[in-house]
Amino acid sequence: MFVGHESSNAIALEMRFRCPRNERVASDILGPMRRWVVLLAMGFWALAGVAQEALRTKIRTIAEDAKGQVSVACSLPGTALNCDVNAEAHPPMQSVFKLPLAIAVLHRVELGKFTLDQPVRFLASDRILPRVYSPLQAKYPEGNVDVPLRELLRLTVSLSDNVAADILLRQLGGPNALGAYVAGLGIDGFHIEDGEAGLHASISAQYRNWFEPESAVKLLRRVSDNSPLTPEHTALLLGWMTPEKRTTRLEADLPDGVRVAHKSGTSDVDAGLAHATNDIGLMLLPDGRRLAIAVFVTDSRADDAMRDKVIARIGRAVYDAAAGGR
Fold first, then answer.
1. Can you tell me whether residue 269 is helix, strand or coil?
2. Where are the strands (E) in 9-132, listed by range?
3. CA 19 → CA 9, 11, 16, 23, 91, distances in Å?
4. 287-315: per-residue pLDDT in tens?
5. If 0-12 CB within 10 Å is exposed, 13-18 middle and 19+ buried, where does residue 24 land?
6. With DSSP H G I counted as helix, E B as strand and the rest as coil, what are the percentages for the chain, rounded to 5?
7. Least packed by Cβ within 10 Å: which of 78, 198, 232, 290?
8. Catalytic: which of 7, 27, 75, 95?
9. Which of these, 175, 172, 227, 224, lies nearest to 197 by C-alpha position?
């Protein structure tokens, strides 16, 4: 703000002295002032660049404990915040896809294609067998029951219910329909080929669904700053994304009272290798701004606790840089 204020003063002075008899006076005053403003701006951005490089270095150091690839991106409008590390990578996203899925389904509600209270049939063929995480399937092991669309959305976002997510994906029209919707939002780093049934059928399939960290952050920024949904549905979505109790990832190391609206994603561990341990979310800063951050841990040989800790420590490092950078 200080730099912009001085620039305005310089322009005003230039207009005031723009007459032949005052040209020399104007030159004497405005020359040093312009140089001072330019030097001040250069110094500010130089210091900001040093601070952001220090943040990225800290993130890389934390990431070493994951014993795999860590991809990070973040965004806080109006600041120079930059925590990008492998921000254009293609990490397998796992259940992170359930966030754009929920947004797409809510958009269909707003178009009048669906209603939140409409019953949706949980078919026997929707089950993922022999075993998958699904409170819905655990409650109705044989399927063949109607479930309100609102409940399917809540289960998908809040509890990461795999069967509920696939039912929503079926209702939407499949992976291609979801990919087209996300691309229509101007986000081109999202790629999906399979639902949860496909992911659980093959380890290699997990790598066919990916989300660039910087694109995940763009989606979060859309939800926060220029939501494609109505305020009512945006609030509903953020409520589903915000757990009552802290999780062990992005919010685990944050100061007491800091809330995070997030969506995580986790793969099974195969031969000691965890293919995906992810979390993306919006952190609410003390001044009311929302920090968007995405952390993907891929092909890690660290144990569950350490992978979660890496995400938590990165989350705290970025939070501290954002909260203290204004």
1. strand
2. 69-75, 119-122
3. 18, 14, 8, 6, 62
4. 999 999 999 999 999 999 999 999 999 99
5. exposed
6. 55, 15, 30
7. 78
8. 95
9. 175
- 95 as an active site residue: the answer is yes
State the pTM of this model. 0.85
Q: CA-to-CA distance for 90 and 303, rounded, in angstroms?
A: 22
**Residue 153: half-sphere exposure toward Cβ, Cα within 13 Å:** 29
- Measure the CA–CA gap between 166 and 156, rounded to whole angstroms: 9
- Residue 79 CB partners (closer than 8 Å, separation 6+): 322, 325, 326
Domains of the chain by residue range: 1-66, 67-323
Q: Are residues 213 and 72 in contact, defined by beta-carbon separation less than 8 angstroms? A: yes
- Which residue spans within the chain are E strands per DSSP? 69-75, 119-122, 145-148, 190-191, 210-211, 260-266, 269-270, 273-284, 290-300
- Residues 6 or more apart from 325 whose CB is under 8 A from it? 51, 76, 79, 80, 81
User: Contact 49/189 with Cβ under 8 angstroms?
Assistant: no
Both tokens assigned to 185: 């939002």
Question: Is 262:249 a contact under the CB 8 Å cutoff?
Answer: yes
**Superfamily covering domain 67-323:** DD-peptidase/beta-lactamase superfamily (3.40.710.10)
Size of the chain, expressed as the number of residues it contains: 326
pLDDT tens-digit readout, 156-214: 999 999 999 999 999 999 999 999 999 999 999 999 999 999 998 888 899 999 999 99
Question: What's the rounded Cα separation, in Å, for the pair 153 and 160?
Answer: 10
